[in-house]
Amino acid sequence: MPKAYVFTRYGGPETEALTDVERPAPGLGRLLVAVRAAGVNPVDWKLRGGFRRPGESADRVFPAVFGSEAAGVVEEVGAGVTGFVVGDAVFGNTVDGGYAEYALLRADQATHKPAGLSFTDAATLPVAAATAYDGVRQLELPEGATLLVTGAGGGVGTAAVQIARAFGVKVVGVASGSKKEFVESLGAVHVPGGPGLAERVRAVAPEGIDAVYDLVGGETLAEAATLLADRTRLITAGAPPEAVAELGGSRVARARTSAVLDAVAGLVLRGALNPHVTRTYPLDRAEQALRTVEDGHARGKIVIEVNE
């Protein structure tokens, strides 16, 4: 039986296990892939703790496989799927987890992996890079505008800074002092977080901030909002809808389409977007991979590499 890294109930790391699972069968609109790589994201451990994405209401069936994005090779094609055949290299959003030897992808949220894109890099794109892309496009900033990105050193933030820069937008990136050099290497002006954030941002951007892309929430989001004359230019992927709505902003509107995946893959191939995979782990070390992200020490993206 194939292996997968799962959580057996809602809770903390004590609920996790590497175990044998049934090989999934692709239903309507699904692709079964032999996973080559799976991206690790903060939402993975949040789901283990009982977090539900907007629109989700039903409890999970346990054991539940970790992971929301994967890249691999098509093993089977489900009913109603066109444009994919067995043997295709693909990447996309998973149906029931990606930390596994086999996973199901949603065909309408998957695309073909270009030959010049590694499986490891491709596995980072459906969640972090696509979220970054959706948010930057949502803001519709003209060339020369200035965007403030909070959480600029994490997976989504790293991509958001680079995508905004590719569109000709100036970026001020908020991150811890330890990530200063990294954030600056992405093309952003670094500003450390914490109390007094707005004053520090005004010092490096005296002409003002045109929009805020928040990935942190809480006090950071609240203080960043004070920098905007037009609060409709405030978006977040780091705070609940009600929290940002109180400040006059909104959540990032996710597209979750194959077209977005093609767009971010194109940016990687052009050299405009570097996924910055800073560490990889084999499936039997998925626990360490998840701890690296959950402990908040990850810089860039962490990936689990599965089948060779």
In words, what does this structure look like?
Strands 3, 5, 6, 7, 14 and 15 form a 6-stranded mixed beta sheet that branches. Strands 10-9-8-11-12-13 form a 6-stranded parallel beta sheet, with helices on both faces. Helix 3 crosses helix 4 (155-166) and helix 3 (125-139) crosses helix 9 (258-270). The chain has 308 residues and is of the alpha/beta class. The longest helix is centred in the middle third of the chain and has 15 residues, at 125-139. Helix content is 29%, strand content 27%. The model has no long low-confidence stretch (mean pLDDT 95). It starts with a strand and ends with a strand. The protein has 10 helices and 15 strands. It has helices at residues 42-48, 119-122, 125-139, 155-166, 180-185, 197-204, 218-225, 241-246, 258-270, 286-294, and strands at 3-7, 16-20, 30-40, 64-65, 69-77, 89-94, 102-112, 146-150, 170-174, 189-191, 211-214, 234-236, 250-251, 277-282, 301-305.
